[in-house]
Design goal:
15 helices; 421 residues; alpha+beta; single chain; Cytochrome Bc1 Complex, Chain A, domain 1; 2 domains; 6-stranded mixed sheet; 5-stranded mixed sheet
């Protein structure tokens, strides 16, 4: 049980405090409800670029890291399709330092052409290193574009092209900041050896004075149901062929999410998952194979990806995967296997909750989903999933017409008989 105290400041900032007296640390997590899905198709990668800009100095703090390091803390951040998160850990006695730092950059960044150009170069280099010049690095550019037709999940967080990042202007940066980086678009979670009343006081002092913004009303396009299978072949400089298959998957808040989530555990729970046992260990068609879902707030994707062993054809590999999926569709999982994946999930949850930062992030995401107490309720929802519900979700999701398939092949082995979309 993760206990917490919750309040909302007058400017709309949602504040959650989780007290843990067994540690000398405090974790500060601030989640902004903005990610790459809030971008426009002609200006992608902006949310991720902005994450970098937030470390470029604010009105009263030229270098964000220096005061935090002097206080014995460390920090990081990440951007996803749905959210942007900044977090710090530091001695609980120095909590006020984190409040000073985060509130100052929420209040006003130190906007400058120089800082913008520096961070644009950093992100463009990251784009080239990890996505353009890395084997299989652009997989999600192709797979998202194949699976989505109108929803902004069709581009990855890094963006569609480096040119979009290079063209960002300072007025656009300021507009983005004052649109999304407002207290009424943020959730602040403090976890650790802290007193809730003192945290509330600090929040009022540092964040309560920041004016709220007028948040845009987002009406993201709903991705239409996929009515036929889609296929694409990519030939590139990669060492071995790889297979990627993606199916549309329930949104994070959908009642079917929990049964659907357990499908990925049955198929891909490490070395005990069906795919690894059958296709890596027994048939030796893949050197590695994984099954997971994107966990998106809007309907996401269930993905199977694997790299083939030498001598295995891409058609043979795909057929073997489909045979394993057919088993899941034809009959319910037996009770021992279902209990095994539930036990594994329970163990993973317990291990995750040992980390203070994880508890803080999980509380923030649950609050964003509409109920902070989901951190305490979700395990029971997984325990209640039946084999019949998993069977039904497998049949709903793993339909051929709901699937997008990507063959990623070494250029010299590109076949001429595969239809492409």
């Amino acid at each position: 049980m993760i206990t917490y105290h919750r309040t909302v400041l007058n400017n709309g900032l949602r504040l959650i405090v989780h007290q843990d007296t067994t540690t000398a640390l405090a974790a500060v997590n601030i989640l902004y409800n903005v990610g790459s899905k809030h971008e426009q198709a002609h200006k992608t990668g902006f949310a991720h670029l902005f994450e970098h800009l937030m470390f470029g100095g604010s009105k009263n703090i030229p270098v964000f890291d220096e005061p935090l390091q002097r206080a014995g803390g460390e920090n990081n951040a990440f951007t996803s399709c749905d959210i942007t998160v900044y977090y710090e850990t530091l001695p609980a006695a120095n909590l006020e330092t984190a409040f000073w730092l985060e509130s100052d950059r929420m209040n006003e960044l130190a906007f400058s052409e120089k800082a913008l150009e520096v961070q644009k170069k950093v992100v463009i280099e990251e784009f080239k290193e990890h996505y353009l010049n890395q084997p299989y690095g652009d997989v999600w550019h192709h797979l998202r574009a194949l699976a989505y037709t109108i929803h902004p999940y069709r581009w990855p967080t890094i963006g569609l092209t480096p040119e979009h990042i290079a063209s960002v202007t300072l007025p656009e940066v300021k507009d983005f900041f004052y649109t999304y980086y407002r207290p009424n678009n943020a959730i602040l979670v403090v976890a650790g050896n802290v007193q809730p009343d003192e945290v509330f006081r600090l929040a009022e002092t540092y964040f309560g004075v920041i004016a709220p913004g007028t948040l845009p009303i987002h009406q993201l396009p709903t991705e239409p149901p996929q009515q036929q299978s889609r296929r694409c072949t990519i030939a590139a400089k990669v060492p071995v062929p790889a297979l990627y298959k993606a199916w549309h998957f329930p949104a994070r808040n959908h009642p079917d999410f929990y049964a659907a989530d357990l499908i990925t555990d049955i198929l891909g729970a490490g070395k005990s998952g069906r795919l690894h046992q059958q296709l890596v260990m027994k048939q030796q068609l893949f050197s590695e194979i994984h099954c997971y879902h994107t966990g998106s707030l809007d309907p996401g994707l269930l993905v199977i990806e694997g790299k083939l062993t030498h001598g295995t054809s891409i058609q043979q590999a795909e057929q073997a995967v489909e045979q394993e999926l057919q088993k899941l569709i034809e009959q319910p999982v037996d009770e021992p296997e279902l209990q095994k994946v539930k036990n594994r999930l329970e163990t993973q949850t317990a291990l995750s909750d040992t980390e203070l930062l994880n508890r803080a992030l999980n509380l923030a995401v649950a609050e964003l989903l509409g109920n902070a107490n989901l951190v305490n309720e979700e395990l029971e929802r997984y325990r209640a999933v039946t084999a019949e519900q998993i069977l039904q979700q497998a049949r709903n999701i793993l339909r051929p017409e709901n699937c997008s398939t990507l063959f990623y092949l070494p250029r010299r082995e590109r076949p001429t008989t595969i239809a492409e979309a």
